Amino acid sequence: MADHQEASVTLPSDPASVRAARTFVAEVLAEWGLPSDSEAADTVRLIVSELATNAVQHTFGQSPTFTVDVRLDRDEQLRVGVTDSHPRFPKRLPAAVQQDNGRGMVIIRWLTAEFGGTLTVRRTREGGKTVSIELPWTAPVQPVAAGGPQEP
Fold first, then answer.
1. Which of 1, 13, 67, 146 is the most exposed place for a label (fewest CB within 10 A)?
2. Which InterPro entries does the record cross-reference, listed alphabetically (predicted)?
3. What sign has the CA pseudo-torsion 54, 81, 118, 116?
4. CATH class of residue range 4-89+100-136
């Protein structure tokens, strides 16, 4: 596998795009060797769903699109980020607040920590933000013969 791989998709800020973001990331990870039925793949899909949902619901129409970036470095570190153009950073709600939504960042933070990763929120040059997670890569590395991939 290459030292660095990346993929990206920009989607409209529409509820239907949450599924498209999840599917995109699942397909990329499978292509890179992470089995789609693994616990890590399930976790990343859930995190992407939460990040994309936040990008759609909490930008109040001020971000017409959002971008999902997936990056794998040296078969060691997976980074998934969702960027939107809304300037407001996500807020953590107090545990005592009773409401039906607003728990996305808590879920993302917990799942990321459970897999030994980190969560970051960064301002973009354009004034928006990127919420990203970094996780250790757990897929088995497929050895490549000196002549390239072999047909089975």
1. 146
2. Anti-sigma-factor_SerPK, HATPase_C_sf, HATPase_dom
3. positive
4. alpha beta
